[in-house]
Backbone:
């Protein structure tokens, strides 16, 4: 069975608990995928800022790809409505929205599902990060064209807006 591997603060037995926000070193565990689902494309995983859940792109038995939310205090992978075709997820700093690549367009959607909003054309997203202040940095191509920066509403998108990153293509 396919499984996602994550790093998390130090291994803790079920009887122990860590204060929220404490960092105790790496903790490793596996999250098995349910029958009928497999990783779609890249195996990138987005972790919500509070560490309560992950978002991953999975493909079902019919070949449909979409984003799934998996709370770490539960066992179910819940599809995110409106994320059909989504890959390479990354999460907003407040954990309320997820950005992703869909059919050559960088897109965003509420984590709990809803209407997706296109942000910018990005033929081959090779990583993205959502910054405070509703800005994101992303690599739209694998051709070494550098990193781009702009608003999550598509405003102010600029190529090579970050000094010294020309040729970078992964985050």
Residues:
């Amino acid at each position: 069975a396919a499984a996602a591997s994550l790093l998390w603060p130090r291994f803790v037995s079920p009887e122990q608990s860590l204060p929220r926000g404490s960092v105790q070193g790496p903790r490793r565990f596996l999250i098995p995928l349910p029958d009928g689902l497999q990783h779609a494309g890249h195996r990138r995983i987005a972790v919500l800022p509070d560490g309560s859940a992950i978002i991953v792109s999975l493909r079902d038995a019919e070949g449909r790809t979409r984003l799934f939310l998996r709370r770490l205090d539960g066992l179910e992978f819940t599809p995110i409505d409106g994320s059909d075709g989504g890959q390479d997820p990354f999460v907003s700093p407040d954990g309320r929205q997820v950005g992703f690549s869909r059919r050559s367009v960088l897109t965003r959607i509420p984590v709990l599902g809803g209407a997706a909003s296109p942000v910018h054309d990005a033929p081959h997203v090779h990583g993205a990060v959502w910054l405070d202040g509703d800005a994101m940095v992303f690599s739209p191509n694998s051709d070494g064209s550098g990193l781009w920066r702009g608003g999550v509403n598509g405003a102010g998108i600029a190529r090579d807006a970050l000094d010294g990153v020309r040729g970078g293509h992964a985050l």
Remarks:
- The chain has a mean pLDDT of 76.
- The CA atoms of residues 139 and 169 lie 5 Å apart.
- The longest strand covers residues 3-9.
